[in-house]
């Protein structure tokens, strides 16, 4: 896919001074803008090097002015103009924009997006012929199979052709949803390298497993009310309390390990090596480690052991045991 080629080029430092991302598939636009953000923007330079505009609420002068203004901290500025199709530019503004695109500043990257681009109109006809123009169309299903396999491989997982085909069969030609489902399957696979058709069959499009993953996300975000509601839904659908606890314990244990190595100032790759895990899992966990200190994680592991023992031996109501566990994890 051309999108992957552009993202690869961005990651390698081959950033164009202008991109026009147009078409109905918003996932591709988001992917490219995220890649540019990750390459160009840091917490230190964000306030100086990143500017966002809604086309209908701003002017061409605003966009070009931002692109021509040098960053106080140096580096390449990223200027994003969204939804060009929601406004109509005056002829003079069209001329100004096209003149800039013909000779753009090398210290800026201007990105313009549009859900639709009527190529019968002069402006769009010229924008779509630029070197940085990309049509973001929903792909044909056949093209999604190698895309899914390549995407899994980029995270260190081997997705079988049968597994990829089952994902597309269940989800359809929807790259954004497919990417989220693949992330769910990779999380489930954990330290295993291979994603099989049976894994996909168990997880993709399965509401029980979807709720289970949402439950663990709510816990890691310390959103007790949301976690309790998802737990109630899980149990109401007949899910095994021991299975729910097992998924929580696995996610929490991963969080604890990552937090431990993070405290030793290890980077993502070194943490993954120490754990025997994929960098993808480490990066996911690092999004939540700030919500827990080491003592809270130790306490959480103790609570998990106690809940496991009570579920197996006490005869108490499983829902009450799990609800108490969730509240203790989310407290503090």
TrEMBL record:
Cellular component GO terms held in the UniProt record: DNA polymerase III complex
Domain DNA polymerase III delta subunit-like C-terminal: 210-328
Key words, A-Z: DNA replication, DNA-directed DNA polymerase, Nucleotidyltransferase, Transferase
Enzyme class (EC, first level): transferase
Catalysis: reaction(s): DNA(n) + a 2'-deoxyribonucleoside 5'-triphosphate = DNA(n+1) + diphosphate
EC number(s) from the headed UniProt entry: 2.7.7.7
Gene3D superfamilies xrefs: 1.10.8.60, 1.20.272.10, P-loop containing nucleotide triphosphate hydrolases
GO biological process, one term: DNA-templated DNA replication
Domain DNA polymerase III delta N-terminal: 19-136
Membership in a protein family: Belongs to the DNA polymerase HolA subunit family.
Matching NCBIfam families: holA
Protein name stated in the entry: DNA polymerase III subunit delta
């Amino acid at each position: 896919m051309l999108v992957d080629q552009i993202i690869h080029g961005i990651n390698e430092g081959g950033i164009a001074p202008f991109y026009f991302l147009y078409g109905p598939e918003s996932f591709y636009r988001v992917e490219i803008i995220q890649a540019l953000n990750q390459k160009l923007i840091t917490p230190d330079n964000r306030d100086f090097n990143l500017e966002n505009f809604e086309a209908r609420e701003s002017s061409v002068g605003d966009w070009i002015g931002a692109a021509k203004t040098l960053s106080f901290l140096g580096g390449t500025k990223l200027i994003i103009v969204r939804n060009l199709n929601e406004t109509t530019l005056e002829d003079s503004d069209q001329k100004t924009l096209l003149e800039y695109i013909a000779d753009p500043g090398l210290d800026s990257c201007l990105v313009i997006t549009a859900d639709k681009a009527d190529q019968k109109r002069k402006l769009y006809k010229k924008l779509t012929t630029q070197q940085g123009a990309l049509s973001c169309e929903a792909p044909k299903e056949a093209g999604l199979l190698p895309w899914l396999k390549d995407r899994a491989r980029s995270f260190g997982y081997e997705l079988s052709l049968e597994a990829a085909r089952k994902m597309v069969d269940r989800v359809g030609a929807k790259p954004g949803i497919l990417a989220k489902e693949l992330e769910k399957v990779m999380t489930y696979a954990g330290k295993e390298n291979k994603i099989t058709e049976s894994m996909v069959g168990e997880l993709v499009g399965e509401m029980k497993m979807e709720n289970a993953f949402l439950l663990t996300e709510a816990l890691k975000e310390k959103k007790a009310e949301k976690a309790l509601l998802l737990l109630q839904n899980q149990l109401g659908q007949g899910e095994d309390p021991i299975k729910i606890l097992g998924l929580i314990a696995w996610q929490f244990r991963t969080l604890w390990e990552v937090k431990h190595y993070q405290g030793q100032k290890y980077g993502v790759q070194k943490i993954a090596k120490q754990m025997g895990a994929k960098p993808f899992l480490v990066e996911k966990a690092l999004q939540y480690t700030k919500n827990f200190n080491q003592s809270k994680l130790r306490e959480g592991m103790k609570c998990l052991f106690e809940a496991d023992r009570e579920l197996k031996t006490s005869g108490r109501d499983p829902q009450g045991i799990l609800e108490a566990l969730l509240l203790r994890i989310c407290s503090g």
